[in-house]
Amino acid sequence: MRKDDCIFCKLANGDIPTNTIYEDSDFRVFLDAAPATKGHCLIVPKEHFDNLEELSDDVASKVFPLAKKMMKLLKEKLGWDGFNVVQNNGEIAGQTVFHFHTHLIPRYIDDGQNLNMKPSSPKEGELEEVLSQIVS
Ligand code: 5GP
Ligand code: ZN
């Protein structure tokens, strides 16, 4: 299903032209309008899902094979040195467009980007406590 007021529904389905690097019956992959690095693009399903929680298993099963294919294409064409695959869910996690999408971010030596997580030092027993909350 498509959502009338969703920009990514329009872009993915070709209602609004965009800088497409790949398209098939399920997805469009296009350049991010505000790229973090050269070649930063988005894998966007043509069907509307708000986020990963809502995503169908069928579409989900096709995302990583496509990410791998695009990674290879971008390696051949742009010659990246590293690669981040990022997928945000919810405002607090940095999601700004509420149509599921996956960021493909080629990385280059000295590209000035920093997508690294801030590590923490858990107190004694903290990890076990979390584990018991999740696995019980
Ligand atoms: P999010 O923050 O939701 O994970 O990522 C949304 C991404 O979509 C951002 O990186 C933003 O630059 C990109 N974006 C937002 N609107 C448009 C648009 O109209 N066209 C394109 N190509 N990218 C967009
Ligand atoms: Zn949508």
Describe the structure in your own words.
With 136 residues, the protein is of the alpha+beta class. The protein is 27% helix and 18% strand. The chain has helices spanning 7-12, 57-78, 126-134; strands at 20-23, 27-31, 41-45, 82-86, 102-107. The structure holds guanosine-5'-monophosphate and zinc ion (ZN). Guanosine-5'-monophosphate (5GP) binds next to helix 1 and strand 2.
Structural class: alpha+beta
* Radius of gyration from the alpha-carbon trace, in angstroms: 17 Å
What's the arrangement of strands in the largest beta sheet? Answer: 1-2-3-5-4
General form: globular
Q: What is the end-to-end distance?
A: 37 Å
Q: What is the element string, with H for helices and E for strands?
A: HEEEHEEH
Annotation field: number of helices: 3
Give the biggest sheet. 5 strands, antiparallel
Total number of strands: 5
**Portion in beta strands:** 15-25%
Q: What is the helix fraction of residues, given as a range? A: 25-40%
Q: Which spans have pLDDT < 50 for at least 5 consecutive residues?
A: none
Mean pLDDT: 97
Provide a quick synopsis of the model.
By secondary structure, the chain is an alpha+beta fold. It is built from three helices and five strands; from the N terminus they run αβββαββα. A five-stranded antiparallel sheet has the order 1-2-3-5-4.
